[in-house]
Design a protein that fits this description.
Length: 155
């Protein structure tokens, strides 16, 4: 099984979500199921159906988070070399066509948030950046057309 790269911060976020699901969401959902059962006929009980659906979501998410945390490889971005863009790197790209500079951090899929400048290493742009060094150009085929970037620096 391949390890799942994640930052310490991302790992803590997943752990917190798992803890919340186990200690708060699951018990609340169990109470909701019990209350809905007490209302009688389950065949026409929308509250019971909704609580059971929620239970399925909670249990599925607990399983998913448990798997991800068990297979996580926590990587400290501060301890990675700065010469090559790899997981955890913070990079500055220049859009060659517009001259606009953008700053991104390469993270795992569970941590990506484009509005916070965190892009997944499995995204098309993330894949194009991986392995590059300052001065390298990269071309990306985006839905809106071809985009050309230069990796200016690795922070």
């Amino acid at each position: 099984m391949d390890r799942i790269p994640i930052t310490k911060k991302g790992y803590e976020v997943l752990k917190k979500e798992l803890n919340n699901l186990k200690k708060i969401e699951r018990p609340q959902n169990i109470k909701a199921i019990e209350e809905a059962r007490a209302h009688g006929d389950l065949s026409e009980n929308a509250e019971f159906d909704a609580a059971k659906d929620r239970q399925g979501f909670i249990e599925g998410r607990i399983g998913e988070l448990t798997f991800k945390l068990a297979n996580a490889e926590v990587i400290d971005p501060d301890k990675i070399p700065k010469g090559l863009a790899i997981f955890g790197s913070k990079v500055v790209l220049e859009n060659i066509d517009t001259g606009e500079d953008m700053e991104y951090q390469l993270v795992g899929p569970d941590e990506s948030d484009i509005e916070k400048g965190r892009i997944s290493i499995s995204s098309p742009l993330g894949k194009a950046i991986i392995g590059k060094k300052p001065g390298d150009e990269l071309t990306l085929q985006a839905p809106g057309g071809r985009r050309n970037y230069e990796l200016i620096k690795i922070l």
